[in-house]
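Morning run. Coffee first, then this:
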Amino acid sequence: HGAYLNDDDDAAELAALVRDRLDGSTMQFHATALADGVVTEDEDAEVLTRVVEGGCIFANRTGFAGGVGCALHHLAAADGLHHSTYKPTVCWQVPLHRTIEEVTANDGARLEVHTIAAYERGHWGEGGADFGWWCLDDEVAFVGRGPLYRSMAVELSLMVGDAVYAELAAYLDTRRRQRSRVRFLPLA
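And here it is:
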């Protein structure tokens, strides 16, 4: 499956990166991207990255001299930038997923409620069962050296804004400090 694009300007930005920044040494399917484009549409007219040889056109496969993995991710690293700079939203958000729901408050005001949770197959709809979710099917995808809200600070800030992220991080830092003071007696 390719990556579905959320923003109207994503397709043009990806095409410009292929034309101006990537080449055959950094993107395995660069020639195909130049010849056929980097995006396509599904049966519902949703725009997504083109699939080549069973995967996203930007996914360099095992054995490619320019490095395995996303060519856009490699480009951002080479430029000293966060990978969200070049990658489509759905790609840099993983393993997080944001839903937006409009609700009515008690005073009648309409509010947007943003919920962030782990990305799961069900978020993709019917097609989610058809493919392995990156590394998310493996429980090691959910462990790290530090808390996710810190290791994914850039992504969370992009998703909810800097002010909301700062409030969230401060709250979670306080909770972590409080939990570290709790001591349990050993079971007899």
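The mean pLDDT is 86. Good start to the day.
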